[in-house]
Write a structure and sequence with these properties.
With 250 residues, the protein is an alpha/beta fold. It has helices spanning 2-10, 43-54, 69-77, 95-101, 104-107, 137-147, 173-176, 180-190, 206-217, 243-249, and strands at residues 60-63, 84-88, 110-114, 128-131, 160-163, 221-227, 230-235.
Length: 250
């Protein structure tokens, strides 16, 4: 069951969508890690994030903002009535992003929090959640446990949750194409390592995929869209009390 679920997720990467706007035309471009820029996402991934935000209503919660490129995208994609809460364990915003978010139309509704993302934000509900913080299994699981139940649909709009770095993809394939010598050295050193190192750069985080896999396996979420390493899921139900125990055991 688990293998089938994971393969179903991976199989949706880059699937075509109905043409509704510019964000659906990412397939016209070459999208890989070379065009990530301040947002640290591929153009196709950012386009899917934009589309998902537009499909939701209510407040937004972002876990992990780094340079705040994704925070700028979230602010630009939303109406002035929607508040954005962005959590990171440090303040590391790039100057241009920080200036953009400090504009009066953004400053009143974008809250840059420096806090532990594993702690719930009391008395707040969100129509959209973007998870891009601690990518270990334990870290993603803690974020989901803290905030999943605070995500809810607003009116006719579904409640969506996006995970970055969740799916295997070819974002770094270009970088490894001509690194035969380096791969040879890694292969040689692996003969003397107790923990082997991959010859090809990893383009996703297995811990993120494992948590997403478990959410779908337990019937708590369904795939809404995917491209590159970005996976967007529609929330179907709150977490059961034993979700953490089942996920760790699985």
């Amino acid at each position: 069951m688990r293998r089938a679920t994971t393969q179903a997720l991976i199989g949706t990467v880059g699937e075509p969508t109905a043409i509704e706007g510019f964000e659906n035309l990412a397939w016209l471009f070459t999208c890989d890690s070379r065009n990530r820029g301040l947002i640290r996402q591929g153009f196709d991934e950012a386009a899917l994030l934009w589309k998902a935000v537009k499909a939701t209503s209510g407040n937004i919660l972002e876990i992990g903002r780094n340079l705040a490129g994704s925070t700028v995208l979230l602010a630009t994609a939303t109406e002035p009535s929607r508040e954005i809460f962005s959590i990171d364990n440090r303040s590391n915003e790039e100057r241009a992003c920080k200036d953009y978010l400090a504009r009066p139309e953004n400053n009143r509704r974008v809250h840059l929090l420096v806090a532990d993302s594993g702690v719930p934000l009391p008395n707040l509900r969100f129509g959209f959640l973007f998870v891009d913080g601690d990518h270990t299994f334990a870290g993603v699981l803690a974020d989901v446990l803290a905030h999943w139940n605070a995500v809810q649909s607003v009116g006719q709009d579904a409640a969506l949750v996006a995970f970055h770095d969740a799916l295997p993809n070819d974002n770094f394939k270009w970088r490894d194409a001509d690194r035969r010598w380096k791969r040879f050295l890694i292969r040689l050193k692996n003969k003397f390592r107790s923990q082997k190192k991959s010859e090809i750069a990893q383009a996703y985080e297995p811990g993120v995929l494992k948590v997403c896999d478990e959410l779908i396996r337990q019937g708590l979420a369904a795939k809404w869209g995917a491209t590159g390493s970005m996976l967007v899921m529609r929330k179907l139900a709150d977490l059961p009390a034993n979700f953490s125990e089942i996920a760790r055991r699985a």
